[in-house]
Amino acid sequence: MKWSLNAMAKWASGRFIGPVAISLAVLVLVVSELGFHRQQGISVNREASIEAQMIVGDLSRALLFMESAERGYMLTDRHDYLAPYLEQERSFQQILASAEHIAAGNEHLREKLSQLVELARQKHSEMRTVLERFDAGDRDGAIELTLTDMGREMMVQISTLAEQVIREESHGYTQTSLDRDRVLRASRVGIWVLVIVCVVGAVSLMRLSRNREAERRVAMLQLHAERDRLDEEVVRRTAETIELARHMERVREDERARLARELHDELGGLLTAAKLDLARIRKRIHDDTGTKQQLVDHLGQTLDAGIALKRRIIEDLWPSSLSNLGLRRTLQIQCAEFSQRAELPVDAVVDEVTLAPERALAVYRLVQEALTNVAKYAQASRVRVVLRRLHDQVEVLVEDDGKGFDVDATLLSGGHGLQGMRFRIRACGGDVVIRSSPSRGTTVRAVLPV
């Protein structure tokens, strides 16, 4: 059960770790972007609140400066007291336009700002009327208008509205500051939580990767151990197969030798006895016509051909000349007999080489099989057989100028003779290379140690 849970955990982590990592990254971006946009909105509100307070304050100060300058001018009749009025009047219209713009974009301040702007226009109009009367020489009318409660009431209303706007905007500014702090804290907490989750996920992924790496190493060690075991098994089985094949080859050669001895001893004795009997019969026949003598001669020729056939079969089964005359002379005889039977010129270049009996027999069988293939399939006009020593190795070549063949296709389709040649030489520690192609002849090259 524990193994199953671990396997399920590994499967789930391996299956979902990628999507989870992507989701966490997306969440970090989302939290960051939400916090940024929220703070951006709060900053815009804070700036609008500060701008509204500044405009209201500027409007109140401008009216106060203008009213003070107006009264100073009327009391002293000096134009330098009128300079602040004129200076504030130039920026007064800009302040009113800014206040109207803020009122158009701020719904909850629209009504109060509109009232404030309207009262400021009326107060400005009242101050201009007073100055116009004063400049026109109607000093008493101007003072009387100034002393009325209308101007004072308008300034009280303006101050009251300005204080309300500033108080409300100060409260809104404080609230937006609190909102900003909350958004900052929430963003930081969210990002920290996601970062912690990411770190935990990264640590888990690292542990999972280490576990998988350890499992992979264990699996590789097991795989290498299994491969080494299989290699050893293959080597052992190959050695057993080669030894078995060698044994079977020895058994076959022994059986050939036994058959050769049987043919030589039994059939050879019978044929020799028949030949002697025929010689005695020939001496006792008296035939004037010669017919009986011809029959006896023909029978003698038939016995000679049978004896020759018996000798050739025995030599094919077991080359007695190999143990009596040596490898060089045996190959020369083999090439000469093949040239006579196949009616093909054979160029035999055979050096004196001393080999173990098993290897000498392998060379003889190789040349025998190669020459047999030439006679059967090659349609050659010339054959070359070479036996020579190369340092501590012996090289055997059998070349013909025949029609050639596809080596790979022949081996795949059977080619037991070619496979037999290779096995004989490889069993002796050598190797065989067969080069051939259609219309390009064939070369059989074998190299084996001395």
Topology diagram in text:
Elements: H1 2-76, H2 83-105, H3 107-135, H4 139-147, H5 149-284, H6 291-317, H7 320-324, H8 327-342, E1 346-350, H9 357-378, E2 383-390, E3 393-400, H10 407-413, H11 416-427, E4 431-436, E5 442-449
Parallel strand pairs: 1-2
Antiparallel strand pairs: 2-3, 3-5, 4-5
Helix pairs in contact: 1-2, 1-3, 1-5, 2-3, 3-4, 3-5, 5-6, 8-9, 9-11
List keywords for this structure.
alpha+beta, five-stranded mixed β-sheet, 11 helices, 8% strand
Q: Could you give the distance between the termini?
A: 66 Å
The chain-level mean pLDDT equals: 78
Helix content: over 70%
Main β-sheet, spatial strand arrangement? 1-2-3-5-4
Q: Which sheet architecture does the biggest sheet show?
A: 5 strands, mixed
Please tally the β strands and state the result. 5
| SSE run | HHHHHHHHEHEEHHEE
Radius of gyration: 62 Å
- Kindly name the structural category: alpha+beta
Helix tally equals 11
Kindly describe this structure:
The chain contains 11 helices and 5 strands. With 450 residues, the chain is of the alpha+beta class. Strands 1-2-3-5-4 form a 5-stranded mixed beta sheet, with helices on one face. α9 links the parallel β1 and β2.
